[in-house]
Design brief:
This protein has seven helices and eleven strands. By secondary structure, the chain is an alpha+beta fold. The strands form three sheets. It has a five-stranded antiparallel β-sheet with strand order 5-9-8-7-6. A four-stranded antiparallel β-sheet has the order 1-2-3-4. Strands 10-11 form a two-stranded antiparallel ribbon. The two termini are 33 Å apart.
Length: 225
């Protein structure tokens, strides 16, 4: 493993810079229309809602801040948000859910998706349904009558996901599943959705707050107070 590359988060920086270069060439008014976001032509900023919280993205720089003006440093999150703005096609949510394997190319990345998202969701909430319900409340999700606990929520503007959890007991291990609205495949491909699921589980566990990390392989050290 190239330790230096990991430390510099090159694996996150390269795809971010690639999509940012595309983003800065696009018409912001058109992107706002197709993504269902708000664009302020005076401040040159998009307002994007991710799992119940608002974030602002500058155009054309791609700089992102939260409601307290803290800059979003995670290349992973910044890349996914810019890809949504660039790729959204104005297709409304279908109200019909599909599994990750039903996404074109989903079978290729399923092992990674399962280990990083589905399995983690089961481990986190398979013995703590009340915590699941609390996290759902914080992200403005809607509880569903599926499994032992389930919720449908808006990951980002007009992109919906469903989390389902089955409790574990002395006989069976906890289990879970993650579904996507059918329309999601028109703005994110299978590789993107593996990352979307990873982000969604991390934010859900933090009850709506973004994870304090730079990329998928590195955690940014926090200053001690």
């Amino acid at each position: 493993m190239d330790i230096k590359a990991v430390k510099e988060d090159r694996q996150g920086k390269v795809p971010y810079e690639f999509i940012r270069d595309i983003y800065e060439t696009q018409d912001p008014i058109k992107m706002a229309e197709l993504s269902g976001t708000v664009y302020d032509a005076e401040t040159k900023k998009f307002k994007v809602t991710l799992m119940g919280k608002d974030y602002w993205i500058e155009y054309p720089t791609g700089k992102m801040v939260d409601g307290d003006y803290n800059e979003i440093e995670s290349y992973t999150i910044r890349t996914i948000i810019l890809r949504y703005l660039v790729n959204a096609k104005g297709i409304e949510a279908a109200g019909k859910d599909i599994t990750y394997k039903e996404i074109p190319g989903g079978h290729v990345y399923y092992s990674n998706f399962y280990n990083r998202t589905v399995l983690q969701l089961a481990k986190e909430y398979g013995y703590n349904i009340e915590a699941f319900k609390k996290s759902n409340e914080k992200i403005n999700g809607k509880l569903l009558k599926i499994g032992d606990a389930a919720c449908r929520f808006e990951f980002i503007n007009n992109v919906y996901m469903t989390f389902i959890v089955w409790e574990g007991d002395e006989e069976f291990s906890p289990a879970s599943n993650i579904l996507f609205d059918f329309s999601t495949q028109y703005c994110f491909d299978a590789e993107d959705l593996a990352v979307v699921g990873d982000i969604a589980v991390a934010v859900f566990k933090r009850q709506g707050d973004l994870p304090k990390r730079i990329g998928l392989y590195q955690t940014k050290p926090q200053n001690k107070q």
